[in-house]
Amino acid sequence: MRVPTTAPALEIDGLIKDFGPVGSLDGRMVRVLDGVHLRASHGAVTVLLGANGAGKTTTLECAQGLQRADGGVVRLLGQDPYRASPDLRARVGVMLQDGGLPPSVRPLALLRHVASMYSDPLPVDDLAGRLGLDEFGAVSIRRLSGGQKQRLALACALVGRPEVVFLDEPSAGLDPQSRTIVFDLIRELRADGLAVVLTTHLLDDAQKLADYVYIVEGGRTVAEGTVAELTADSETDGIRELRFETVPGLTLPPGLLPHLHQLESEPGQYVLRGTLTAEDVAYLATWWASCGVMPTAISLAPRSLEDVFLDISGRSIR
Predict the structure, then answer these.
(1) Phi first, then psi: what are they for 84, rounded to 5°?
(2) Contact between residue 316 and residue 265 where contact means Cβ atoms under 8 Å apart
(3) C-alpha triplet 137, 86, 3: angle, nearest 5°
(4) 303/293: higher pLDDT
(5) The pTM is what?
(6) Are strands 269-273 and 261-266 parallel, antiparallel or unpaired?
(7) How much is the mean pLDDT over the chain?
(8) For 186, what's the count of Cα atoms within 13 Å in the CB-facing half-sphere?
(9) Is 224 helix (H, G, I), strand (E, B) or coil?
(10) What is the pLDDT of residue 215?
(11) I want to staple 65 with a disulfide (CB 3.0 to 4.6 A). Which of 78, 81, 136, 151 is the partner?
(12) CATH number of 10-231, picked from 3.10.580.10, 3.40.50.300, 3.20.20.220, 3.30.1050.10
């Protein structure tokens, strides 16, 4: 593998992409990307988040050379990915979710075939063993579970020793043990100097893995930063949720902490959501004392990446 330079592995500036609407009679174009910017560095995990229709998938397709940009700049390892040479494509690994795997082929046979396309591939048996592919290597791909297909797609993306790897929903459908293996592997890729560009709808996963996060909304990059930067709250310590357990049927009296939303998720299990302060917790303690109850469990949760994402993209289903 080539020694990475200090230049960004992926640079996107002012990306514009237009599509003609399906069935359009007037030929008008629809602008789906209107100024996306993104940087992905070697030795870092860059996470791209966006709700359905926000422009995330189109951004990645332009970054990978699957779509041609209509404006702006896209540079992958210093080159235009749409006009990529075979040399550039050999330096990039792409894992597509639920796609690109021939259903009648057996997993290990496919992985060996993909490895044969590279001059210096990873040892197939070692990679297959690491991801547990040898457990189902003789079964046709059409019979694999979703999680097994995910592991195979990841192996195919990595076997050529890429410098940049695009991972689309790498933990989707995985059981907890497989997710841990994949997470450890992603961290190793980062430690080895690869640029990892990752998308996921599992925001807890993004929060655990990301070095830097970009959020796309309405075809634009609307927020970016480290997880700590995005979840920081300048007014409070960032506590957004308080849970406690006690007797069922309690209701916050009118006028007490009106900025918090109370939910009794199950009898005796309460959730308070909002931006909590130390004074709020003191009020709650006074209220518990006035009711003559003692909580049996209390937990506080800080502002999360999911809170940031929902604040930007809204909480309704798209």
Answers:
(1) -65, 140
(2) no
(3) 85
(4) 293
(5) 0.83
(6) antiparallel
(7) 89
(8) 30
(9) strand
(10) 95
(11) 81
(12) 3.40.50.300
